[in-house]
Write a structure and sequence with these properties.
TIM Barrel; 14% strand; 12 strands
Length: 367
Amino acid sequence: MNTKYAALFEEFAFRNGLILKNRLLMAPMTNFSSNEDGTVTNAEIDYYARRSKGVGAVITACTYVTPNGKGFEGEFGGDRDELIPSLARLAFTIKEAGAKAILQIFHAGRMAPPHLVDGDVVSASNVLAEAKGSAVPRALTEEEIKQIIQAFAETTRRAIEAGFDGVEIHGANGYLIQQFFSPHTNRRTDKWGERLAFPLAVVDAVKKAAEKAERPFAVGYRFSPEEPETPGLTMADTLELIDALKEKNLDYLHVSLMEFWSKPRRGAEDSRPRLELIKERAGDRVPVIGVGSIYTANDAIKALETGSDLVALGRGLIIDPDWVQKVKSGKEQEIITKLDVSNQEKLVIPDPLWKAIINTPGWFPGV
């Protein structure tokens, strides 16, 4: 290994005692490839097996915690006990390859396609999403809010029983947790109109469930730093969120970004990259995972040196499943950074994900 990249391969211990063999993770990426009943498919298992051999941990694609929280065609579920064997199969596949397995849990809220939730699209308030085909959501009742919070806890219990090493609460990308935190989507006047109330209640419920694990079990939280809407989330809101989250003894915070070095648009007079501001605010209280357009070993070590405690690889690991092994063996020059559109089979990418990539120009380098 080139000593320049040695820091990427240092062990990392979470607060709860879970130890990663290195600082590199597979980022959570939807693959649209599960069965209609919410079970994982052989194609998904093969896809994860191909990418779990080098990284310290794999954060899975998101799994819905209630039936009306489903956000995508071909999404695997965690909303009922019958799905524990399916979840266990996924956890075993990841762990057998040498990585820790972290299950990302979420509720799509107003981002749920109406046909996947029998038309019952819900959110904090009845604010229509801009996505094509969206339906005006129904504002959740207080009782329903409490049920969803409990559903996050129940899915955490299932993750423990299935053998996962942790869960990641998906509070990013405009889904339900973010809908409660955002001034754009939360127009409530009851106690849930306090925009931090729902995210923190979910964290508390998940943490309580995680405490029942009889082994080290991590709880992380993912968030998006800003929203384009006005009113919408700004960096000032995000820094307030971090202040609240770092009091919760979480194992990590995970920033959702397409570009690691992107800079704030609103809510910060500082022109440094968002991730630097986020890490500075988190301080030593909670580790931060950085992500976004990291394709080379130099990108990854620069990200670590910028202050991220851990680095997640998303598109880079889809393009080159052997990314980590190549750096570790001193062959970082051989990393492939553009998708070979003739190489689906060798890359072990399921058909639905492959079609999504090929039909979305600009999402992946080389497409």
